[in-house]
Amino acid sequence: MIVRHFDINTPKVMAPGKEGWEQLSLGYYWMPKCRAANFRAALEELYMRIRESGNIAGGQFQQDCMLSILADIKKDKVNIFELGAGWGRVCLDVAAAIDFNIIQCAPKKYNCLAVEAEPVHYEWLKRHFEAQNISGIAVFGAVSNENGSCQFDSFSSSPDSEYGQAMSPLIGRRGFPNVRGLLKFLRGRTVRVPTYTLDFLMQKYRFKHVDIVQMDVQGAECDVILGAVDSINEGLIDYFLINIHLDEYGNMIHGLLSDKYTLVIDLKRGHLGSVEGFPPIHCHDGIQLYKRKGV
């Protein structure tokens, strides 16, 4: 498959409420209260500097990746899982691309499942879905390599200004206490949430096939893949679009997926990436895109 740029004409769509909503570029709306004003201003300034330098932001490139996946799919309905969904930006964009015919593609219907473990962001996610009749399910929890529970970052005093929330284990991988996790727990900055494997989520919510898994899970990327082994081996997932938080995770994921998937995009965290047809890509997180062989 080829990842290419799409010029977007934002459609005229009525807001789901009289106030408190702002339209996204593909058509659906979000609540700006989900992002603190100072954080938003800093992000807009960063994007402006990136454009002025002749580059493109990684987040904007990822939108083109997702639209390129939709253009590559030959079925009339797609199922998408958004893991570490926050307030659900990716699902809203996929829904808008299909509902408002933003690009020329075969899919005319969709079904979303979005998973988020930070309690306030989860409520915002549900609100975005419910207010706009998005065909999807919001799930409270984290995705990992086993079902159970974990401590998860929760900054209830200012959830709109905190991003990059992650699982915060009390015990490290080698069996020793995790000092950072213990400190967060003692300071009341974590909450206990359920954990699910991707295999379990597919069974519980009766997805026989998932076309796209998009994840931004703050360092749990490999665990998510390990918790999807059955679905991967049975050919039930076609595309993975992954935010990579350490280069070593990208290498590990490639080792886990390379037998069954083709690596389409591999951009390193904190670097200027190069993809044909695009200006240099300013990557905060790394970006990997995989397509199942034979699809």
User: pLDDT under 50 segments (min length 5)?
Assistant: none
Treating each run of at least 4 consecutive H or I residues as one helix, how many helices?
9
- Write down the CATH topology of the domain at 22-141 and 207-292: Rossmann fold
Report the CATH C-level class of the domain at 22-141 and 207-292.
Answer: Alpha Beta
Distance between the termini: 10 Å
Structural class: alpha/beta
Run of helices and strands = EEHEHEHEHEEEHEHEHHEHEEEE
Strand content: 15-25%
Largest sheet features:
7 strands, mixed
Helix content: 25-40%
What is the element layout, followed by pairings?
Blueprint: E1 22-23, E2 29-30, H1 37-52, E3 56-57, H2 58-72, E4 77-83, H3 89-99, E5 109-116, H4 119-131, E6 136-140, E7 142-143, E8 148-153, H5 179-186, E9 190-196, H6 198-204, E10 210-215, H7 221-226, H8 229-233, E11 237-244, H9 247-257, E12 261-267, E13 272-273, E14 281-282, E15 286-292
Parallel strand pairs: 3-14, 4-5, 4-10, 5-6, 7-9, 10-11
Antiparallel strand pairs: 1-2, 8-9, 11-15, 12-15, 13-14
Helix pairs in contact: 2-3
Give an account of the 3D structure:
This protein has a domain at 22-141 and 207-292: Vaccinia Virus protein VP39 (Rossmann fold, 3-Layer(aba) Sandwich). The protein has 9 helices and 15 strands. It has helices spanning 37-52, 58-72, 89-99, 119-131, 179-186, 198-204, 221-226, 229-233, 247-257; strands spanning 22-23, 29-30, 56-57, 77-83, 109-116, 136-140, 142-143, 148-153, 190-196, 210-215, 237-244, 261-267, 272-273, 281-282, 286-292. The strands form 4 sheets. The chain has a 7-stranded mixed sheet with strand order 6-5-4-10-11-15-12.
